[in-house]
């Protein structure tokens, strides 16, 4: 069982990591190498999320290409479409630039807006996924780069596949484009060489306070921590010889505004996270689930008791 100090540190960490944030929509990003899901931080960065959704809902991100990839740094998109008829790269229609809303750190798996150097308020449509912890670099320059979303669950597996595609310096009517990923390039460039985003689509809202998402392999939980507040959390699920382990994903933590029926609770004296109900997909699969905090430093929980329906 964990020590009282460790339990206090865990609760304090929940309070300090994110403030004034609520859970937000999930979107499915469909690429030529596979799909990945993202979660938007609409309360943290409302202007940036609203701007991003305007491009999503208008369909302007559909058929855009990943136009920049730098190993162990970022992949970037949201700007260009390849016109097969003219064999040229064309920019999408841009809205006005937006105000910078830097608040969250550029760690691996987060998504941020690209912008012009020496102009913090120059972001428009271009976004990038952080391939590593870029906080020391991107948090400190140009007013900080606005993180407005995160890649959910195993989605980084697709992002990492994109990052492995060879890159080239491409001459275009827009000028020279360095670090441009092109797949299977053995002859003349065609549409199949580009890493294309066919669409970004909204996903249905999930109403259950605790559920396992089979697509992302994440356990998502809304928990009442008493005086420490109400939180939405996500756990990655890992299986080992010692059984099922669940790792709390720090980038997933958000404050929520209202209590819900059958929310989870955390017993600090026992180090137990209690889930009255746990859904798998749309089905109530388990009741009275106990997750035991076994490693406060690594934020690891073990599966304790549960009732299967």
Summarize the structure in words:
Mean pLDDT is 88; it is low at 1-24. This protein starts with a helix and ends with a strand. Strands 14, 15, 16, 17, 18, 19, 20, 21, 22 and 23 form a 10-stranded mixed beta sheet that branches. The protein is mainly beta. The chain has helices at residues 4-17, 46-58, 135-138, 155-163; strands spanning 26-31, 34-40, 64-65, 68-70, 74-77, 80-83, 88-91, 110-113, 127-130, 147-151, 167-172, 175-181, 196-202, 210-213, 218-224, 230-240, 243-248, 254-255, 264-267, 272-280, 283-295, 300-303, 307-308. It has 4 helices and 23 strands. 13% of the residues lie in helices and 40% in strands. It has 2 domains: 4-20 and 206-308, no CATH class; 26-202, Beta Barrel (Cyclophilin).
Write the layout of secondary structure elements.
Layout: H1 4-17, E1 26-31, E2 34-40, H2 46-58, E3 64-65, E4 68-70, E5 74-77, E6 80-83, E7 88-91, E8 110-113, E9 127-130, H3 135-138, E10 147-151, H4 155-163, E11 167-172, E12 175-181, E13 196-202, E14 210-213, E15 218-224, E16 230-240, E17 243-248, E18 254-255, E19 264-267, E20 272-280, E21 283-295, E22 300-303, E23 307-308
Parallel strand pairs: 14-20, 15-19
Antiparallel strand pairs: 1-2, 1-13, 2-10, 3-13, 4-5, 5-9, 6-7, 8-9, 8-10, 11-12, 14-15, 15-16, 16-17, 16-18, 17-22, 19-20, 20-21, 21-22, 21-23
């Amino acid at each position: 069982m964990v020590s009282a100090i460790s339990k206090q540190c865990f609760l304090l960490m929940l309070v300090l990591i994110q403030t004034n944030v609520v859970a937000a929509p999930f979107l499915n990003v469909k690429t030529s190498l596979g799909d990945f899901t993202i979660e938007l931080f609409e309360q943290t960065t409302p202007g940036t999320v609203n701007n991003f959704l305007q491009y999503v809902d208008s369909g302007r991100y559909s058929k855009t290409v990943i136009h920049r990839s730098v190993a162990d740094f970022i992949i970037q998109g949201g700007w260009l479409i390849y016109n097969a008829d003219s064999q040229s790269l064309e920019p999408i229609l841009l809205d006005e630039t937006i105000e910078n809303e830097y608040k969250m750190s550029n760690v691996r798996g987060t998504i941020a807006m690209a912008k012009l150097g020496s102009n913090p308020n120059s972001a428009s449509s271009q976004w990038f996924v952080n391939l590593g912890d870029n906080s020391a670099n991107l948090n400190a320059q140009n007013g900080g780069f606005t993180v407005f979303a995160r890649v959910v669950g195993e989605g980084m597996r697709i992002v990492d596949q994109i990052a492995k595609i060879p890159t080239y310096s491409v001459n275009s009517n827009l000028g020279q484009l360095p670090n441009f990923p092109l797949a299977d390039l053995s002859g003349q460039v065609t549409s199949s060489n580009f890493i294309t985003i066919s669409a970004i689509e909204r996903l249905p809202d999930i109403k259950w306070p605790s559920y396992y998402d089979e697509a992302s392999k994440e356990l998502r939980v809304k928990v009442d921590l008493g005086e420490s507040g109400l939180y939405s959390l996500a756990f990655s699920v890992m299986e080992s010889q010692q059984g099922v382990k669940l790792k709390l994903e720090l980038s997933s933590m958000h404050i929520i505004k209202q209590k819900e029926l059958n929310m989870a609770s955390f017993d600090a004296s026992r180090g137990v996270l209690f889930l009255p109900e746990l859904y798998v997909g749309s089905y109530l699969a388990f009741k009275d689930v106990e997750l035991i905090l076994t490693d406060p430093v690594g934020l690891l929980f073990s599966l304790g008791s549960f009732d299967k329906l």
